[in-house]
Write a structure and sequence with these properties.
Structural class of chain A: alpha/beta
Number of strands of chain A: 16
Largest sheet of chain B: 2 strands, antiparallel
Distance between the termini of chain A: 64 Å
Distance between the termini of chain B: 50 Å
Number of helices of chain B: 11
Strand content of chain A: 15-25%
Shape of chain A: globular
Oligomer: heterodimer
Shape of chain B: globular
Largest interface: A-B, 39 and 38 residues
Strand order of the largest sheet of chain A: 2-3-1-4-5-6
Strand order of the largest sheet of chain B: 1-2
């Protein structure tokens, strides 16, 4: 026992001596690298990020050794309940009193736009992972925001263009009535029109509406060929369900503009087969992604969504930056990240553009029919890869003042 | 084509029908709430959670033991009714005679716990419950294609609502119940076991919620938050109809379903607040609700 204590004391002393000798270590503020994530932990978007997202972050911290230069890495999390004011207040509290060095924005665009403002004011790195709104790196871009996984522009360019090219010329939108929904509708409309299609109408449904049949009947009345679902999570699930029930799928084709693998899992392949969707990542892509996904599965009992993989990637790259610069100073880390190339399970050769957009490949996928699926969660065929900058906002389209 | 308020008559009738389907759920849930409030003076915030538990029971029974829909329609309400009885015996019983606020807080807490348990176990994306074979397909009504299952929902809920109303207003048992709430001491003096009656009433209310949950399972995704999405509207329905009025809550439920349905056509953004706007207006004009008796 005494021996053990002595050893511990010795180790501590050694850490102290070497710590003092290495100037880089002094640059870890508060002697801990603290990562915060504010996301939906309990409501409609909790499956695509939520607890699984936090688990992915923990995996990234473990893979980085749990500490950098002897300084512990920690994650703290909070539930924003999809309310921007809660997200902003929590972010402010964390930066001011908890010494959070980097903040990850989970799902919901409204909350992310609010957190991005706070982070810019506090001059701390903010990595938006779960939010879709392209405004984060467009008219509301800041030097402190990095948008990691996907955005509404990429979803529109992926699914929108693919569907129009297959003959879906006339569109009707069922749109979630908040920042994300209207942005996704606007972005998709641009793509549809640019490809020679036409939008004949739209209806805005409140977030978490309990029944979509009424909206769907309106969509059917429009005689459009394509029903564009500019919504997410539970809303998408319930609208697809009702569309099947009311036979809408016989006269119209559904285009889910933001569909995650959890939604497909929940609806089943019978209901969703043949549907096109765009995503930033799919677990069953390569040996490397499969291996990571199975590790995740062991912990969560479900396969990771693209967002959970992106959480892992964002934290991995952030920690690599802290390690290389020997500092958690926001400016140093961000400068490093903006010059780095990212290679991990989520992306290959990724990089940060001037507007804060993380550039990587995006994938157009089609949902398999039940007989083609070889195992649980084996749901997609990758139909097209959008390389590099192909999927993202172009310089001409951007209103971001940092990227001019 | 003939038009009503600027929309084709066919679309109008279609929306009316959908409004009735949603209204049927409101009616069934607010009925249970009204019965519990009327007879126990408990504002049962756990009602939404019991509805959710009913739907999950049906799904679990199908998934684990392949119990079909029709059995689930009987078994799930029974099981949730027993759960209701346990809740009443172990917890609610202690609150009688106290400020109604305590009952509200207790049931609200219960609903958070129940939701949390199911969220932890099954996540939020929910589970799909297939439409039973006999009710698959749709019928062309001329003005719209109505899925057979939705027609069944309206029918089943009407039967349940009328049945409940009949039991409470037109039978001897109902007379005891009503008398028991007016003056429990006196009724007890006549040899009626009031505590058991109250316990069974809460159990029956819970069973009604579960029945609605099983009916809802094939229509909506079976998800932990399905109850809380609905319960606030249902509370507004009860307030508009008049607290404790059974017939009032059924008619208001159906009526509000229809009004909400039309709001989805004319001004969809407002469809989730229209019920509350109506509630505010009703409270200003008739504080006791449309069918409530002025105290």
């Amino acid at each position: 026992m005494k021996m053990k204590k002595l050893f511990a004391a010795g180790a501590l002393a050694a850490a102290g001596i070497f710590g003092a000798a290495t100037p880089a270590v002094a640059q870890i503020s508060g002697d801990v690298i603290r990562i915060g994530i504010i996301t939906d932990m309990s409501s409609v978007y909790a499956d695509i990020d939520g607890q699984g997202g936090i688990e992915a972050i923990k995996m990234a911290i473990a893979d980085a050794g749990g500490a950098i230069n002897g300084k512990k890495i920690e994650v703290i999390y909070a539930d924003h309940q999809n309310k921007p004011d809660i997200a902003a207040t929590k972010a402010r509290e964390w930066f001011d009193t908890q010494g959070v060095d980097m903040l990850i924005g989970g799902t919901n665009s409204g909350t992310n736009l609010a957190m991005a403002k706070v982070a810019a004011e506090k001059k701390k790195p903010f990595i938006a992972v779960g939010a879709a709104s392209s405004a984060l790196t467009n008219d509301q871009c800041t030097p402190y925001t990095l948008h990691w996984a996907y955005d509404t522009t990429a979803l529109a360019k992926g699914t929108g263009a693919a569907v129009v090219k297959q003959g879906g010329k006339t569109w009707f939108f069922l749109t979630a009535d908040y920042a994300f929904g209207s942005q996704l509708q606007a972005d998709t409309t641009k793509v549809v029109e640019a490809n020679g299609g036409k939008v004949v109408g739209s209806v805005r449904a409140p977030l978490n509406a309990n029944d979509f049949s009424s909206f769907l009947l309106q969509a059917q009345g429009s005689k459009a060929q394509i029903l564009g679902l500019a919504n997410a999570g539970g809303d998408t699930i319930n609208s697809i369900k009702a569309a099947n029930e009311f036979g809408i799928t016989k006269t119209m084709k559904l285009a889910g503009l933001l569909v995650f693998i959890n939604d497909i899992h929940s609806l089943g392949l019978k209901t969703t087969q043949g549907m096109y969707l765009t995503d930033s990542w799919y677990w069953n892509q390569s040996a490397e992604t499969r291996a990571w996904a199975r590790k995740f599965f062991e912990k969560m009992k479900r396969m990771p969504s693209s967002l959970q993989a992106a959480d892992y990637s964002a934290v991995t790259q952030y920690l690599a930056a802290v390690k290389s610069t020997g500092s958690d100073d926001p400016e140093k880390v961000l400068t490093y990240l903006k010059k780095a190339k990212f290679n991990d399970i989520f992306m290959k050769g990724g990089w940060v553009r001037g507007d804060g957009r993380v550039i990587h490949d995006m994938y157009l996928m089609q949902v398999k029919s039940p007989d083609k699926s070889t195992e649980p969660w084996d749901y997609y065929d990758v139909k097209q890869v959008f390389k590099g900058e192909e999927a993202w906002t172009t310089k001409a389209e951007s209103k971001c003042t940092l990227w001019k | 084509m003939t038009e009503i308020f600027g929309i084709p008559i066919q679309a109008f009738l279609g929306q009316l029908m959908l409004g009735l389907v949603n209204g049927a759920f409101y009616a069934m849930l607010s009925l249970g709430l009204a019965v519990i409030f009327g007879l126990l003076d408990i504002v049962n915030f756990a009602h939404g959670a019991l509805y959710m538990v009913g739907a999950f029971f049906a799904w679990i029974m199908l998934d684990k033991w392949e119990v079909n829909y029709w059995f689930a329609l009987i078994l799930a309400p029974l099981a949730v009714g027993v759960l209701g009885v346990i809740i009443e015996r172990t917890m609610l019983k202690r609150l009688y005679g106290l400020d109604p606020l305590y009952g509200l807080l207790l049931t609200f807490g219960l609903s958070l716990i129940l939701e949390g348990i199911f969220r932890d176990q099954y996540g939020v994306s929910g589970q799909s419950y297939p439409v039973p074979e006999a009710l698959q397909g749709a019928t062309n009504l001329g003005f719209m294609v109505l899925p057979n299952y939705r027609a069944w929902v309206v029918l089943a809920s009407l039967v349940v609502c009328i049945g409940t109303w009949f039991v409470i207003e037109r039978t001897r048992l109902g007379a005891y119940l009503r008398a028991g709430t007016e003056n429990s001491k006196l009724v007890q003096a006549f040899g009626v076991n009031v505590p058991v009656m109250v316990m069974l009433t809460y159990g029956a209310g819970a069973a009604l919620a579960a029945f609605a949950g099983v009916l809802a399972a094939p229509v909506y995704q079976v998800a932990p938050q399905m109850g809380s999405n609905l319960i606030i509207i249902v509370f507004a329905v009860v307030v508009i109809g008049g607290m404790g009025s059974i017939l009032g809550s059924v008619l208001t439920g159906l009526g509000l379903g229809v009004i909400e349905g039309f709001t989805k056509v004319f001004y969809p953004e407002a469809s989730n607040v229209v019920v509350f706007v109506i509630m505010a207006i009703v409270l200003m004009v008739r504080p006791a609700g449309l069918f409530g008796k002025e105290a």
